[in-house]
Task: inverse folding
């Protein structure tokens, strides 16, 4: 499945079905992030249920503390 | 009248009128590390009227790779960052009033310094400071600009009270245990990019060009060639404890306890005693000289090296324990030598 993630087209494994799976794949599931799918910001609680589909445009922003 | 600002005033969104507004403004900068030195230099060169710089740390060799106001001399002298930054900033532009504070500012101290401040800039390395700034911004209706970076990644967002969501609206919890400059390192282009986003937003706010303010959460990874910009305006939460209809500003509550923090990129723990406690550095140095170890002193701090650990004590009662990230061990050392 091809997804455009943060501006780049990436092919992700077929084992990824949900946004939650995607965050785990990128090891972001324990991090504080905002996820946008096709210009809709997702509620944190719904990430584990919402499906990702080929061609989705995903934006993931992680809050970090350094400076 | 020289032409110091001529190239900036030729830029039509600023112009002569904007330049005058910049000169009439007071910016408070919390933190004088990588983002802090970059933002400070840019704002001072741009001709801001007054800049308040607050920092709790002092210059070390590992800072010089990216903290652009500091020199080897500052690292050798272990000069507090706020002091070193002010010295350099005054050389850059003597027309600007720069007020430097060597302190780990708590909400009460911050409230004192906020009088007349038009904008707060985030250059801290921790979320405690950011959540405090976020609540102060709401309480006193002062805009602030979040900025952070680690490895080749960076993020920024401009918070306008009463208009945009606040940082508390955007976070489902306060991030802890994430990547730090300690574990993931940091490269200077990531700093420069965040700083550019922050400084340009500051300029827009200072010249009051509100329609130009970005309104989006921006993030990037310069090494991975990624860039993201999200419109988060719908995340404004009416029941937010910081900016909602009945705000309680939870991060301004002062809890009477010793505060500790692991410092980003420093393999160090900061210990801050519960009440404001100024002590005589002379007395501290004398006490420590009786211990096994090596004591050094300058007008701002006492440094004490022992057991593969180094302890640096500031006048306001704070201590930095170097060579450990273990808070308990750091507290033990603190109590062992200072009671």
Result:
């Amino acid at each position: 499945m091809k997804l455009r993630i943060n501006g780049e087209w990436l092919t992700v494994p077929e084992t990824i079905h949900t946004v939650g799976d995607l965050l785990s794949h990128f090891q972001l599931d324990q991090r504080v992030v905002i996820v946008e799918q096709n210009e809709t910001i997702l509620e944190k609680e719904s990430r584990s249920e919402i499906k990702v589909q080929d061609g989705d445009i995903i934006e993931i922003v992680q809050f970090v503390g350094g400076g | 009248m020289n032409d110091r600002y001529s190239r900036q005033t030729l830029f039509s969104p600023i112009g002569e009128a904007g330049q005058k507004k910049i000169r009439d403004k007071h910016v408070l900068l919390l933190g004088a590390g990588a983002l802090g030195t970059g933002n400070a230099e840019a704002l001072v060169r741009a001709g801001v009227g007054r800049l308040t710089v607050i920092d709790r740390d002092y210059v070390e060799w590992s800072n010089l790779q990216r903290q652009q106001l500091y020199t080897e001399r500052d690292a050798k002298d272990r000069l507090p960052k706020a002091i070193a930054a002010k010295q350099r900033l005054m050389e850059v532009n003597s027309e600007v009033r720069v007020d430097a504070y060597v302190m780990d500012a708590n909400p009460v101290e911050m409230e004192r310094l906020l009088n007349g401040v038009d904008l707060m800039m985030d250059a801290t390395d921790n979320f405690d400071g950011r959540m405090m700034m976020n609540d102060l911004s709401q309480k006193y209706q002062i805009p602030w600009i979040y900025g952070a970076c680690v490895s080749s990644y960076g993020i920024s967002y401009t918070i306008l009270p009463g208009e945009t969501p606040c940082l508390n609206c955007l976070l489902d919890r306060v991030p802890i245990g994430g990547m730090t400059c300690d574990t993931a390192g940091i490269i200077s282009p990531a700093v420069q990019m965040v700083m550019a986003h922050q400084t340009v937003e500051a300029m827009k706010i200072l010249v009051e060009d509100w329609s130009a303010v970005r309104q989006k959460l921006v993030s990037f990874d310069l090494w991975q060639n990624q860039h993201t910009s999200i419109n988060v305006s719908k995340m404004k939460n009416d029941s937010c404890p910081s900016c909602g209809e009945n705000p309680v500003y939870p991060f301004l509550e002062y809890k009477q306890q010793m505060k500790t923090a692991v410092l980003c990129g420093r393999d160090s723990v900061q210990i801050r005693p519960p009440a404001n406690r100024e002590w005589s550095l002379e007395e501290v140095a004398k006490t420590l000289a009786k211990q096994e170890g090596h004591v050094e002193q300058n007008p701002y701090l006492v440094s004490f090296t022992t057991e593969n650990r180094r302890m640096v004590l500031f006048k306001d009662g704070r201590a930095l324990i170097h060579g450990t990230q273990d808070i308990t061990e750091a507290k033990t050392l603190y109590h062992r030598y200072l009671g």
The mean pLDDT of chain A is 94. Strands of chain A lie at 2-5, 8-11, 33-37, 40-41, 57-62.
